[in-house]
Amino acid sequence: MQTAYTVLILLMLVGVSRLIGRVVPLPLPLVQIAAGALLAWPTLGLHVALDPELFLFLFLPPLLFSDGWRMPKREFWRLRGPILTLAVGLVLFTVVGAGYFIHWLLPSIPLPVAFALAAVLSPTDAVAVSAISQNRLPTPLMHMLQGEALMNDASGLVTFKFALVAAVTGVFSLATASVTFVLVAVGGLAVGVALSWLVGRLRAWMIARGWDDPATHVVFMLLLPFAAYVLAERVEVSGILSAVAAGMMQSWLDLLPRQTNTRLLNRSVWSLLEFAFNGLIFLLLGLQLPDIIKAVASHETSLWPTLLYRCFDVVAIFLVLLALRYVWVQSIWRASILLRRLRGKGEMTQLPTARSCWLLTVGGVRGAVTLAGVMSVPLLMGGVAFPERDLLIFIAAGVILLSLIAACIALPLLLRGIDKSPDDKRRNEVREAWRKTAEAAIHALEAEEAGPQDAAQAALAAELKARIMSEYRHQLDIFNDSAEAQALALQMDLLERRLRLKALRAQRLELYSLSRHHQIGDDVLREVLGELDLSEAKLGQVK
Fold it and tell me: What CATH number corresponds to the domain at position 354?
C-alpha cells in the first residue's frame, strides 16, 4: 500500500505543481524539482528508491514514442544535416573534450569513467526547453532542438555503455565500437519501424472486420512503445531509437478509415500521459537530491566545505559543456548558412547568427535521460566499489539543474525583442488544404447519383445536398483571395460559431435539467452529452 500511496501523492503533486506554475514566475520543471526536494526533506521524509532500469523502461519509451509521433517529418528531413551533426557529432565531440577535462579536474575519476560521464551528460531534453521558452523560439531552431533530442538520447547512451565497458574490462577498440554503434542504431530504427508497421497492419485487419472499438486500438497504441523498446533491447540494439522510430512510423499509419473516435481518444490519452510522465520525472529528480548530496559528502569529515568544492566542480564542468556546445554549434551554423545560401534557401537566416547560436547552445537542456543513465552506473567494478559513483551522480544532477536555471535566465533575455511572427508558409498551406478539401467535397456531392426513389425522396435528397454544398462553398469564401471577402467571411464565421456555441450550451443546460428531474437516465445523459461535447470541440475556441 505504501507504493500506491506514494504514486498517488506524486500524481497529485504533478497537478498541483501545474497550478503553482501559473502563479509563480518559474518554469514548470524547476517548480517540480523544488516540490520533489521539499517532499524529501527530513521533516516530510518521502523517499523513493529509484531503479534505473525500471525508470528507463516506464518513462522513456512512451515519451520518446510521443515525441517521434509529433515531430514534423518534413522538417526533420529538411534539417537532417544539422540534426545529425548535433545528435552524433556533438555527442562525440563532447565525450572527448569534456571527458579529458573531467579527468584533469578530478584525477580520482579514471579516464574511461570520465568519458562515460561526459557521454551521459550529452543527451538533451527538448520538452524542458519548450516549457521554458513558452513556444517563442523560432520554428526552425525548435525543430532542430526537437530532432537533436530525439536522436542524441540513443547516441549518448550507446557511447555511455561503450565507455562503461571500457572502464570495467579495460579493453576498447575504436573500430569495433564504431561498427557496433552503427549496427545498434540502424537495428533499433529497423525494429521500431517493422513493429509499428505490423501493428498498423493488425489494426487495419481488425477494422476491415468491424473491430473498430476505440478503446481497444488505443490500448494497442499504448503498448507499442514498450514492445518496441523491449524487443530492441532483447536483440541487443537501441531500444530508445526503436521507440522513436515506432512513433514516427505510426504517425504515417494513423490515417486509417473509420478511426475518428480512436484518434480523438488517442490524443486525449497521450496528452495526459505526457503531462503526468514529464512531471513525475522532474519530481523524482527533486526527490533524489537530498540522498545524492548526502552520498557525495558521506566520506568526508565536513559537509559544507566538501559540498562547496563539489559545486565548483559542477559549475566548471557545466561551463565547459556550454563552451564545447557553442563552438560546435557556431561551426555547424556557419557551414549551414553557407550551404543554404549556395542553395538559395534562407530559412535559417532570419535571426542574427550570434543570437541563433546562443539560443541553440543554451537550449541544450539536460533532463531525464541524463538522470536515468548515470543512475545505471554499477555499484561494483571488478569486485570493488565503482570509482566515485556518488560523485558522478552528483555532477549529473548538478548539470541538469544548472542547465535548467541557465535556460530560465538566458532564453527570455535572448528572446527579448523577438516577436514570433506567424508562419506564413504554414498558414498558406493550411488555407490551401482547406480550399482543396472543400472543392473535393463539392465535386463528390455533385457527382452523387441517387438510386431509385420517389419524387419526395429525390426532392429531399436534392435539398440536403444543396444545404451541405452551401456549407463547403462558405468555406471556399473564407479562403477567397480577396482580403475584403476574407474579412467578411471570417466575421460571419465567427458570429455563426458564437451562435452555435450559445445554442449548444443551452442544450447542455436543458440536458442537465432533464437529468435532475429524472426524466432521462444516466446512459442517455452520457450519450447526448458526448455528442454535444464533440460538436463544441469542432467549433474550437471562440473569442
Answer: 1.20.1530.20
